[in-house]
Amino acid sequence: MQPSHDNEYVPLGNTGLSISPIGIGTWAWGDKLFWQYGKGGFSDADLRAAFDASVEAGINWFDTAELYGSGRSEKLLGEFVRAAGQQVLVATKFFPYPWRLSRGALRRALRGSLKRLGLEKTDLYQIHWPFPPRSIETWVNELANAAQAGLVRAAGVSNYNLDQTRRARELLEARGLPLASNQVPYSLIDRKIETNGLLAYCREFNITVIAYSPLGQGVLTGKYTPDNPPPGVRGRRYNPDYLRRVQPLIGLLKEIGQAHGGKTPAQVALNWAICKGTVPIPGAKNARQARDNAGALGWRLTGEQVAALDKASSNVLGLSSV
Question: What is the mean pLDDT of residues 229-236?
Answer without folding.
Answer: 80
